[in-house]
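User
Class, as today's exercise, I want you to study this protein, comparing sequence with structure tokens, and judge whether sequence predicts the tokens.
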Amino acid sequence: QVQLVESGGGLVQAGGSLRLSCAASIRIFNTMGWYRQAPGKQRELVARITRGGSTNYADSVKGRFTISRDNAKNTVYLQMNSLEPEDTAVYYCSAVVDYLTRWGQGTQVTVSS
């Protein structure tokens, strides 16, 4: 089993930045990603990154968010710039292990206007 622990969420003003971190308890050899879920909304993909560094992003965050990973530290990051109130959500780290998507506990990101 794997544990994923997110950190770095908080309250920021529109236009501000946050950097989320997700530390895995084991080595992750496959894709890791960030998802988010706003109240009353379905969970949606924010960004994904392969072990080799290939990335993709939701259209809503392209140009503003950057996903990266440090394989030696078993950690994935999400740098969020130019935050908007619409980015307010619980952000979840994910990793695929043995064909199953594993989830962290989530970290709240709130962007005020």
The chain has a mean pLDDT of 95. DSSP finds no helices and eleven strands in the chain. The two ends are 40 Å apart (CA to CA).
